[in-house]
Amino acid sequence: MAISRDFIQDLHNRLDIEEVISSYVSLKPAGRLRKGLCPFHGEKTPSFTVYPDTRSFYCFGCGAAGDVINFIMRIENLDYVEAVKACAELAGVAMPEDGYDDSLAKRRVRILSANREAAKFFNACLNDEKNRFALDYFLKRGLTPNTIKKFGLGYAPDNWHALTDHLKKLGFSEQELVLANLSKRSQKNNRCYDNFCNRVMFPIIDVRGNVVAFGGRVLDDSKPKYVNTSDTPVYKKGSGVFALNFAKKNNPDRRLMLVEGYMDVIALHQAGFTGSVACLGTAFTAEQANILARYADEVLICYDNDEAGRKATQRALEILGRTSLKIKVIKMEGGKDADEILRTYGKERFNAMITGASNQIEYNLSALQTRYNILTDDGKLRFLSDAAEVLAECTDVEVDIYSTRLANEFGVSKDALLAQINNAKGKRRHRMQSEQKSAQMKMLRESFDIKSNPERRKNLKAAAAEETLIASLMRNPEFYAKLRDKFTPDDFATDFNRRVITLLIELIEGGYQTDISMFNESFSPDEIDSIALIAQKGEETANTLKECEDCIAVLKKEKNAPRRNSKEEMPDEDFSNYFRNKEKK
User: Fold this and answer.
1) How sure is the predictor about 426, in pLDDT bands with cuts at 50, 70 and 90?
2) CATH topology for the 456-584 domain
């Protein structure tokens, strides 16, 4: 059963969406609206908009949309029931005692509970005298007992059933342990066995203090070096950030240091660099970049001093460059990673490396220079040609500074270098215009495609009328009393819009509000985005009874009209002209 609509409506009325979102996003007034950088995709120009009047949000960049409950679902990676519970806590109200299905939420709670007990078990094993060699591993790496305790480090014993048997005695089922990826099931005999065996353990804790996953490292040189928790209902590698729970609490300068491994992070924290984090998974992701941008204004990249580390740095620069974050790169000298440098030279040396960190331009120029033999004329020419490409993306002031520096360093004319940079800028401008045209066409097509409504393109006129009618009734539910005898959901040509109008009518007839909050339980987050996009039409339409009647007339006519050819296969130019001509009519 669903959570009662009365409770959702009351909860929605109690919460100030601007206040809730402001704890995650810096919002600035834009007339009666509020705008900020979207927390769900990387951007430098604010496209994330909050509508205090309708208590909703919409991002014109990525299409994320909804109400305060939907926002909490996305930002905290919660399911619907968990998000409602979180919002209820914010509003200071108690959840209904029964009457709703919270099986998924209960499953997540059980997994988190199993993870917490596993972390206790691993820590107890680490401190067991018979496993002294595991504790010695950490101590020899320079970690203090306090640091080991702070990060909850542990040891998975050399026994493939130790953890599984322990957790089963505590009442956890094999199904729950497999779902948590703490155990695996043998294909031979279907028996459960531990996912982690004979490894030192690093619990991964989210910003709310929940143990969501583990990383396990061998104590020797055997392979695989690490075994990590796979994606589970409470954890996704592509959005995991190790030690962010600590870094966000001790980060007054809003500066984070991004390193590669668990030990690097822990060693840096122990040395006083408490803004250090590591992103989990095989590659740095845009989702992780957006998470960092919530808690920092600047990120220092401190990846390993090897070829893999340099490639990872370039990838991180590319992804972080799409955000509003200021980015610097620490040049690793004296060791392959932060942990080794700290143990060899101490925190003072590392602090000096932070002070000398390069900005993105300096790093890219330095990285380019290593590719060529600049002692030869050919090497100089090829380097300066590539350097011009780098500077073509910079501001005029940056171009002036770095072109002067390069001209002096390589003994070439600054005017000649500027000419090459301007030529590269022209090519880049032409390329960007072409890409922008392609992107605009894609947006034009997608704007007529509402992603959750695949039938829309084959029913453009009817779908447009459906959406205008939905938007008008969401904004003016009182219209329905005069329209109820003039149409039914069966008049709708597209199944998605038919589902939306059916629920909308149910809400109106039940005397409920018609805002986004009342759709969350019946539609997926992607579908909510589409409904919010339709609702935005309420800002553009006349919102009159006559307009609604005109839409109904279109639906009746289209219902009986012969099927028209789809616009799906139209060439871009024809597609664009089609809609320009429609606007003139």
Assistant:
1) confident
2) DNAb Helicase; Chain A (1.10.860)
Residue 582 has pLDDT above 70, yes or no: no
User: What are the helix (H) ranges across 127-255?
Assistant: 132-140, 145-150, 162-169, 174-179, 244-247
Cross-strand bridge partners of residue 490: none
| β partners of residue 259 | 278, 302
For every residue of 273-325, DSSP letters joined together read: -TTEEEE-SSS--HHHHHHHHHH-SEEEEE--SSHHHHHHHHHHHHHHTTSS-
Identify the band that residue 102 occupies on the pLDDT scale cut at 50, 70 and 90. Answer: low
CATH 3.40.1360.10 fits 241-335+350-364, yes or no: yes
Name the pTM for this structure: 0.72
- State the span(s) of the chain assigned CATH 1.10.860.10: 456-584
Structure tokens at 471: 């938007």
User: What is the topology classification, in CATH, of domain 104-234?
Assistant: DNA primase DNAg catalytic core, N-terminal domain (3.90.980)
Q: Where in the chain is the domain with CATH 3.90.580.10?
A: 5-91
Backbone phi, psi, residue 557, to 5°:
-65, -45
What CATH number labels 5-91? 3.90.580.10
The string of pLDDT tens digits covering residues 23-62 is 888 899 998 899 999 998 888 889 999 988 888 899 988 8
Closest CA to 54 of 344, 454, 355, 471: 471
